[in-house]
Write a structure and sequence with these properties.
The protein is an alpha+beta fold and about 375 residues long. The protein has eleven helices and 15 strands.
Length: about 375
């Protein structure tokens, strides 16, 4: 008989819910070396697994109040001189999205450079740094600079560091087996934490271990997806709200026979980034349920078209080839969707740690420009 899951209230401390699990997968050597160098205690197993909450009302209570937030990018020098002048090279990977900074260590950035990096991420959507000497503690400290760290109630984390989650496809495959026809990991277009009252801002993934072939990650620009729409179509969706759901389901304490339910939040379908002031399309196929005020058939037609615009226009996407000890920092929930390729099929290890900083409550401003309008790139039909 399977053990009975015990509901855990969010107020219970992490130490009270620890469920040690010995390392039976074989932690990749590069990951182990990084963790041991950082002084992470692996003696009780890796990773740390919090006891999963059972009831949906407990999860709603975790972060259910408005919290103050100021985007660091909004106070940055628009020219980003402190950051860019210190780099050996700045490489824009595509016209619309993706920049690589060469020659800087994230752990050594000054506050001024962190502000300017925040603005660069807001403008370019995702910024990459290779050859990083970065401990999980360094990663968490940087994340705290960009906002409140998201501590997930059930995702595996680095022992002793709540908020530093572990991305290890081999671990996930133990619970959700993957194959060529049904890839594992995050192999679908999505964005994270859209169900939060104040969803994700900057997410920082550091991969210490990557396969020799494959394992790329793709990002698409929400600014550009919105700009792909005709001005008349934009008028249809501007100001509309949609319902977004969580990735994980929970039980209704008052109606156990109803089956698992997802956390749901209502947010604008088009939102404005506080650091740039630009409009972005804010949908993703995995977690956007419906447009408020429309019949299901109407909502499905519009949403499916918007998903296609986001996912199928390769000119607004970037595909990044990882190397060991590389960091990607992207504006996760606000202006991008992403997709992790599982073309290596689990034949080689992939391991990384991730920190997500929560941002503002999503908002829409009808007077806000598109990115192309703000940069003087828009033609007369835009």
């Amino acid at each position: 008989m399977a053990p009975i899951a015990i509901p855990i209230h969010p107020s219970i401390k992490e130490a009270d819910t620890v469920q040690p699990k010995k390392d039976t997968l074989g932690l990749p050597e590069a990951a182990r070396a990084r963790l041991e160098k950082a002084g992470i205690d692996l003696s009780n197993g890796y990773p740390y697994r919090p006891a999963k909450p059972l009831y949906i009302d407990d999860v709603y209570k975790i972060r259910n109040e408005d919290r103050p937030f100021t985007d660091p990018g909004s106070r940055a020098d628009p020219e980003k001189k402190a950051l860019l002048s210190a780099a050996k090279e700045v490489k824009h990977l595509t016209a619309h999205i993706g920049t690589e900074i060469v020659g800087l260590q994230l752990k050594d950035l000054t506050d001024q450079q962190k502000d300017e990096l925040g603005l660069l991420i807001a403008e370019r959507s995702v910024v990459f740094f290779r050859d990083q000497d970065l401990s999980p503690q360094d990663q968490k400290k940087l994340g705290e600079y960009y906002g409140e760290i998201e501590v997930h109630p059930q995702v595996p984390t680095v022992p002793g560091l709540p908020g530093v989650t572990v991305l290890w496809p081999a671990l996930q495959a133990q619970e959700f087996p993957a194959n060529f026809r049904n890839p594992g990991g995050a192999s679908r277009w999505h964005t994270d934490l859209v169900h939060e009252r104040q969803p994700a801002g900057v997410t920082h993934l550091h991969n210490d271990t990557i396969p020799s072939i494959g394992g790329d990650t793709l990002w698409a620009s929400g600014y550009s997806a919105y700009e792909k729409l005709s001005p008349d179509f934009r008028k249809i969706i501007d100001g509309k709200e949609a319902v977004y759901r969580s990735a994980h389901p929970y039980l209704d304490r008052d109606n156990l026979t109803a089956g698992p339910k997802f956390i749901e939040r209502t947010h604008p379908l088009v939102r404005v980034h506080p650091a740039t002031g630009w409009k972005a399309l804010w949908v993703n196929r995995a977690m956007t349920l419906r447009i408020v005020g429309l019949d299901k058939a109407e909502s499905d037609v519009i949403l499916n078209y918007l998903y296609d615009v986001y996912e199928k226009n390769v000119d607004i996407q970037v595909r990044f080839k990882w190397t060991p000890r590389t960091s990607a920092l992207w504006d996760n929930s606000r202006i991008t969707i992403h997709n992790a390729s599982w073309d290596y099929e689990g034949k080689e290890p992939r391991h990384g740690t991730r920190v997500t900083s929560l941002a503002e409550k999503p908002y829409f401003d009808a007077k806000a420009p598109t990115r192309r309008q703000a940069l003087g790139l828009a033609g007369p039909e835009e």
